[in-house]
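Anyone? Bumping this.
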Amino acid sequence: MVNPNLDPRGYQPGGVPSRERRFRVTTWARANLFNSWLNAVLTLATLWLIWTVCWPLLKFLLIDAVWDGASRVDCLADRVGRDVGACWPFIGAKLPQLLYGFYPINEQWRVNLTAALGLGLLVPLLMPSLPYKTANAILFFGVYPVVGFVLLVGGMLGLEHVETRLWGGLLVTLVIAVTGIVGSLPLGILLALGRRSEMPAVRGVSIIFIEFWRGVPLITVLFFATYMLPLFLPAGWAINPLLRVMIGVMLFAAAYMAEVVRGGLQAIPRAQYEAAQALGLGYWRMMGLVILPQALKLVIPGIVNNFIGLFKDTTLVLIVAIFDLLGQLRAAFSDPNWAAPTTVATGFAFAGIIYFCFCFGMSRYALWMERRLNPADR
Amino acid sequence: MKRVTLVVALAAMSTFVAGSVTAQTLKTVRDRGALTCGVSQGLPGFSTPDDRGNWTGFDVDFCRAIAAAIFNDPAKVKFSPLSAKDRFTALQTSEIDVLSRNSTWTMLRDTQLGLNFAAVNYYDGQGFMVRKSLKVNSALELNGASICTQTGTTTELNVADYFRANKMKYEVIAFSTADETLKAYDAARCDAFTTDVSQLYAMRLKLAKPDEQMILPEIISKEPLGPVVRQGDDQWFDVVKWTFFAMINAEELGVTSKTVDEALKSTKPDVRRLAGTEGNFGEQIGLTKDWAMRIIRHVGNYGESFERNIGSGSKLNIDRGLNKLWSKGGIQYAPPIR
C-alpha cells in the first residue's frame, strides 16, 4: 500500500526518509482519525464539509477572481468569458479611500507617519524581552497621542488643517478602536476598584456609572450623542462628531472592562490583601504591587475578549454617518463605474479579511502573553 | 408612524435652535469661504465618491452649481454625507446650508419640519424591471406576475394600489434588503422587480446580464426629488431655487458649458438676461451679474449634468422621461429670467 513512487517529490534515492514519514502519517491517521467506525464517519463528514465550504471560497477569492481591470466591464462574466469570482481591481481602485477615507491625497503621508510611529512604539512595548519599558510606555501613552493628534488634525506647525469629516476608512476604525482600548482599560480598572471600595460615595458613583452604561445599547449611545445632543446644545456649540463617538465608545467599553477586572479582583484570596497590609503597604501600593498584577493576569482572556468586541463594535459608527472601513466600503459600492455582480461580495470579503487579521492578531498575542505569565499552567 | 412622530418632535425642538441662526445663510457661506452641502452616503449616479475620492453625481453637481454661483469655484463645497435618518436634523441644526440628497418633496416635510423644498430637480417614481425574455412591454401586461420588492417600504403599498386599480392579480415576494431582493430577481424567483426607477437603473448594473433586462415605461408613484433649505431665509431660498432655474433655462436656450463665450456675445434678449449682459438679475439675489454663466461654465446646464451623471453619458443610462424639458415632452420647466 505504501508506495514511494506515488509521490515523486518525496521520493529520494534510498527511499528511507520518505517511506518513514509516510508511514508515520498513515499510522497517525489510522490511530486518531479512523480508529473506530464512528470516528471514520466523522472524519469523512468533516472532510466533506471542509471541501464544500472551502473550495467555493477558494474558487471565488482566487481561482475565478479577476485581478486586472479599470472598470465594471472587466469584472463581467460576458467580457471575461468564464465564471467571475472576486473583482479585485475594485478593491485596488478604492484602496486609498478604504484606508484614509477622504483625507487629502497630498496629506496622506501624515497618516502613514502616525501609523509608523505607533507601530514603532507599540511593537517593542509588546515584546517583553526588550529593555526601557518605562520610557517606552511614557512615549506611547503620554507623548504619542499628542504627536498623533497634531499630525492627523494639523492646523499647526505648518501642517494643513484636515477636518475629521474627511477622515475615514481604516484610519477611523483604528482611531476609535485604539482610543477605546487604551482609554477603557485604566478607566475600567479604576471603576472596578471603585465598586469594591469601602467609601460609599465612590462605590455608589462607580455602580451607577457601570450599570448605566451596561444598561443602554451602544447604538443608542451613538445615536443620542450624534442626533439628540446637538439639539440640546446652544447654537454655535458643537462637539466634533468623531470625538463624540470616541468618548461614547470608550465610556461604554470601560463599564464592561470594570466588570471583567472586578471578576479578577474577587478571585484574589483575602490573605493576599492581609499579607500586603502586613508589609506596611498603603492602598495604592497594595493594589499596584500585589493585587492588580495577579488579578489582571487572571482575566487576560476576558480583557482581550472585550478588546476584540470593541474593535468589531466600531463598525456601528456607520449608522451615525461616520465612514469607518465598512462605511467607506458601502460608499464605494455606490460607484456605478464598479457596479458588477460580484463587487459587493468582493468588498465584504476584503473587509472580513482585514477584521479577521486584527482580531486574530490580538487573540494570538494575548494567548502567548498568558502562557508566558503562567508557566505553571502550560 | 413612529418615525414621523420622531421627526416632528425633532423639528419642534429644533425651532428653538434653528430660528435664530438661519437669517443670513448667504453671508455665512461667504464668510466661511465654502458651502456645506448634505448629500447621500452613496447613491449611484447621484452622489458617490469616485476612484480619487472626489464626490461626483447629479446631486453633487447641484451643490457645485451653488458654489460656482457664489464663489465662481465649484470646488468650494464641503460635502456632508448623511443617512436618510439624519438629513433633516443636519439642516435644522445648521450643520449644512443646503440638502441635496434625493429627498422626496411631501406635504409633511414641507410644512412640519421648518424646511422648504426649493425645486424638483428629478422626477422619480416607482417602476418595474423585467427580463426581456418575458416579452412584456407595459406594466399593464403584468397580470398574474410575481413581483420582488423590499419589505417595509411604501413600494409594497404602491404595487397593491396599482394592481387593484387595474384589476390585475399579482404575488409579492418581499425581502429585507435591496441586495437580497435583487439576488432573488436574478435567480428568476420572480418575474418583475420594483422600486424607484432611478434605483432600478442602478440595480440593473449589478445583474449578471444587464442588457437582457428592460425597465417598463409606467411610473406608478410620484417621487419628486429636490434640494431643501431651512425656512426663514428667503434670500437663500431664492439663491438655491434660481441656481436650478438657471440650469434649466440655459438648456432651453441652448447655452452649454462649451458655448458660454458665445452666449456672452449673443444678441438674443433672453440669452443676454441669462448671461448677465442685460439687467442685473444676479445682483438682485445677492450674487454677481454673471452668476448664471458661472454655473454653466463650471457645471453645465441641466441636460449636461443629467447626461453626464445618470443619463446616456453614464453607466446608468437612465432615460430622461419626465425629466425632459417641457418643450421636449417632459415636465421640467423654469420661470423665465426677466
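Late reply, but here is one note on the structure posted above: The first helix of chain B runs from residue 2 to 21.
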